[in-house]
Write a structure and sequence with these properties.
The structure holds two protein chains of two kinds. Chain A is α/β, with parallel strands linked by helices. Chain A has eight helices and twelve strands. In chain A, the strands form three sheets. A five-stranded mixed sheet of chain A has the order 3-2-1-4-5, sandwiched between helices. In chain A, 48% of the residues are buried. Classes of the chains: A alpha/beta, B alpha/beta. At the A-B interface, α1 and α2 of A face α1 and α2 of B. The structure holds zinc ion. The site of zinc ion has 6 residues of chain B, from α3.
Chain lengths: 244, 332
């Protein structure tokens, strides 16, 4: 059984996944209360599905980019659970989770999350050789800068306020497509799927190596042909300082 | 009862295994040296370091105590007061650990931890518990609180700083004298070579009887140093000694007065500044008997003190145990 935890932004989400089905999922606007509300939500999911935490042997956490303080709530909780019952722990990019449900649309997809007053976290996803891939590094940039990368119809998902939607319309005209509100929300069920898949193919990392993607510098450079890969490789690709 | 306890409220990552609230089986503290370059704590940097080290230290604390997680009876963590981003790391890790291991989780007030550091020992022969009621002075870079402890888990705040914490004043004066960070230990060392009566400095006494104020003293030291600089060389040791005398006397004065007014024999100290010998002596002189002070490593932030406080919280059931992290958590 896999427990998926996401507190990357003001929106939080928790899911239980048995490898085939999402058995429970709760997604809510937690604002800054993730720290208070995460564990009650985990306990509800366990209770509703009559699952003991001892039978949860996999934990997936969203590792951003997103709010650093927010991200650390779910990551610390996931680390604690992994230490407490020996579950395997995996970190999945929050933007990967946002884009993943739109893979069947075959549209170039761009998840957006607010990074600062004028900046957004973003990345571009597209199918290539029948494989859904992240095709850009994680960006921190203004809408202007993000749109300069866009030449074709692009589906925007994520936390998009009315003003952001209007600005994208202005910048891109008919090339800007928008997913419906319900389908652009970040849901831990998808995080669970990605986490499960990742744990099937990858050796388990050390618990404390799961940490937020501290994407900071505007980073429009770098390879645009990255596979849908594990987050840590991106940290290196972005040329972030090595941890001490 | 064996408690695994976690402290991450500021810039020390601490994990300890404590038995029955008194006996330390292991106590690992990782000080974040990254802050030395900035001369102060950067909250985001501190939170990152906690997350990177907490699990490694937890594993080490268990190993050093020679215990498996299955031999632990409860998990405790500081839930405030402190830096919220830092508190959230320790509290959520601890709650995850407790839930997954099927153990109770105990949220601990950090100040209560400093108080209960006075109950802790590393050796086999453990002296009797401090007698209650007690007046407790908790002084560090983050707090200057004077508390009346009426009984276990019954705390009455008497006074606190209305501006800087005492430890901050040490840090600021150390920076002014180009002595580095943190200021407490280095000022104490340099002050030994100086004359504490070289420069008279003001001792502010705020209207509220047991409150502290250090900003006036800080400004006076600044003015003094600027004047001395104009005249030539600054006698660093004399300035440090005079400052240390002024600040420890302010703290000792109110602590002794609180003990007298509440007819309390026991005076306890906690927090990093409690390691300062001049402060201990100034208080002992005023109350007329030696006071019990945790050894320096237990005065500064550590996991063991959280484990001790958690034990007494569980033993005195019926008292409220907090769960959520709060940067401004108050002492009951
Ligand atoms: Zn402290």
């Amino acid at each position: 059984m896999l427990l998926a935890l996401d507190t990357s932004t003001d929106w939080a989400s928790v899911a239980l996944f048995d490898g085939r089905n999402v058995l429970a999922e709760e997604t809510w606007h937690a604002q800054r209360r993730q720290g208070d509300e995460l564990f009650p939500a985990i306990e509800r999911a366990l209770l509703m599905t009559r699952t003991a935490l001892s039978s949860v042997d996999r934990v997936a956490v969203a590792v951003g980019p997103g709010s650093f303080t927010g991200l650390r709530v779910a990551i610390a909780a996931g680390q604690g659970i992994a230490r407490g019952n020996g579950a395997a722990l995996v970190g999945i990019s929050t933007l990967d989770v946002l884009a993943y449900p739109h893979a069947p649309s075959k549209q170039r997809t761009c998840p957006l999350l607010r990074a600062g007053r004028d900046t957004f976290y973003a990345a571009f996803y597209q199918e290539r050789n029948r494989k859904w891939m992240r095709r850009s590094p994680f960006l921190v940039a203004t809408l202007d800068e993000i749109c300069r990368q866009i030449g074709t119809h692009t589906l925007f998902v994520g936390e998009i306020e009315a003003e952001t939607e209007a600005a994208l319309h202005d910048l891109l005209g008919p090339k800007a497509l928008f997913a419906s509100p319900a389908s652009r929300v970040r849901r831990a069920g998808y995080l669970a799927e990605l986490g499960w898949r990742e744990l099937e193919t990858r050796a388990q990392t050390k618990i404390n190596e799961i940490e937020p993607l501290y994407v900071r510098q505007p980073s429009i450079r770098g390879s645009f042909e990255q596979p849908f890969a594990a987050p840590p490789s991106d940290e290196r690709a972005l040329g972030l300082p090595k941890r001490s | 009862m064996r408690i695994l306890a976690i402290e991450t409220s500021c810039d020390e990552t601490g994990v300890a295994i404590v038995e029955d609230g008194r006996r330390i089986r292991s106590n690992i503290v990782a000080s974040q040296l990254v802050h030395q370059d900035t001369g102060g704590i950067v909250p985001e940097v501190a939170a990152r370091e906690h997350l990177r080290t907490l699990d490694v230290i937890t594993e080490k604390a268990l190993r050093d105590a020679g215990r498996q997680l299955s031999e632990i009876d409860a998990v405790a963590a500081t839930v405030g007061p402190g830096l919220i981003g830092c508190l959230l790391v320790g509290a959520n890790y601890a709650r995850g650990l407790a839930l997954a291991a099927g153990l109770p989780f105990v949220g601990v007030n950090h100040l209560e931890g400093h108080v209960y550091a006075n109950w802790l020992y590393e050796t086999e022969d453990i002296p009797p518990e401090p007698e209650l009621p007690a007046v407790v002075l908790v002084v560090s870079g983050a707090h200057s609180d004077l508390v009346l402890m009426e009984a276990h888990r019954r705390f009455r705040p008497l006074g606190r700083t209305i501006d800087d914490a005492a430890g901050e004043a040490f840090d600021k004066v150390a920076r002014l004298l180009h002595l580095g960070f943190p200021g407490g230990p280095v000022i104490e060392r340099i002050a030994k070579e100086g004359d504490p009566n070289a420069f008279p400095l003001p001792r502010a006494l705020p209207a509220d009887r047991f409150d502290f104020s250090f900003s006036g003293l800080k400004t006076a030291v600044l003015r003094l140093v600027r004047e001395l600089e104009k005249k030539g060389e600054v006698p660093v040791a004399d300035v440090a000694a005079s400052f240390q005398k002024a600040i420890t006397e302010m703290l000792a004065e109110k602590t002794a007065r609180a003990a007298a007014e509440h007819a309390v024999e026991t005076v306890l100290l906690g927090g990093g500044v409690a390691a300062n010998l001049a402060l201990r002596e100034a208080i002992a002189r005023r109350i007329g008997h030696p006071l019990r002070v945790p050894r320096p490593g237990l005065c500064t932030d550590n996991g063991a003190m959280i484990g001790a406080a958690a034990f007494f919280a569980l033993r005195h059931r019926g008292t409220e145990i907090p769960v959520s992290a709060r940067s401004d958590l108050k002492l009951a």
